Amino acid sequence: MAAARELSAATNAALQAAVDRARAAGHSWKRIGDVLGTTRQAAFQRFGRPIDPRTGEPVARAVPAGLTERAVAIFVARAEGRWEDVLTEFDEKMRDKLDADRLAAGWAHTIAMVGTPS
User: Fold this and answer.
1) How many angstroms separate the CA atoms of 98 and 103, rounded?
2) Nearest to 40 by CA among 29, 27, 25
3) CA distance to 4, 40, 62, 105, per residue, from 47 (Å)
4) 108 and 83 Cβ atoms separated by less than 8 Å
5) What b/e readout covers 17-47, taking b as 16+ CB neighbours within 10 angstroms?
6) Which side of the chain, N or C, has fewer Cβ within a 10 Å radius?
7) How far is it, in rounded angstroms, from Cα 42 to Cα 59?
8) C-alpha to C-alpha distances, 21 to 18, 47, 48, 106, 109, nearest whole angstrom
9) Which of 84, 111, 85 is nearest to 99 (CA)?
10) 56 Cβ contact list (under 8 Å, min separation 6)
11) Centroid of chain to Cα 27
12) Strand partners, 58
């Protein structure tokens, strides 16, 4: 299993390098997707490196420490109807436009349109 895992990692690295070379040579994501037997969107999602328009640098793929737990806490608070707790995660500009009642009303409207989440 260890040998297969190492081979898989090497294969993925080689494929990423080939895609990087294809992009550097000017090939489109559609062409790369076609060669890989997938869509351009799937090819970009797997191999693309989005660029931050503010800096021109690639967007980091690493999830900042604690962010997953923070997101879970927000969704739990929303599920439990603790709208004030949800609002604490919003920035000042958003809190100026939205209070707990409006947030709850917006969620109720969304549920009325698309149904209760599973």
Assistant:
1) 6
2) 29
3) 21, 10, 15, 40
4) no
5) eebeebbeeeeebeebbeebeeebeebbeeb
6) C
7) 18
8) 5, 12, 12, 46, 48
9) 84
10) none
11) 24
12) 51
Token pair 């969304």 is at which residue?
110
Locate 98 and state its tokens: 């939205």
Whether pTM > 0.70 for this model: the answer is no
How many CB atoms lie under 10 A from the CB of residue 48? 16
Query: 70 is written with which tokens?
Result: 């923070």
Q: How far is residue 102's CA from residue 83's CA, in Å, rounded to a whole number?
A: 9
- What number of other Cβ atoms are within 10 A of residue 97's Cβ? 8
CA 61-65-70 angle, to 5 degrees, is 105
Question: Mean pLDDT per 10-residue run, the chain (118 residues)?
Answer: 88 93 94 96 90 83 85 92 93 91 91 80
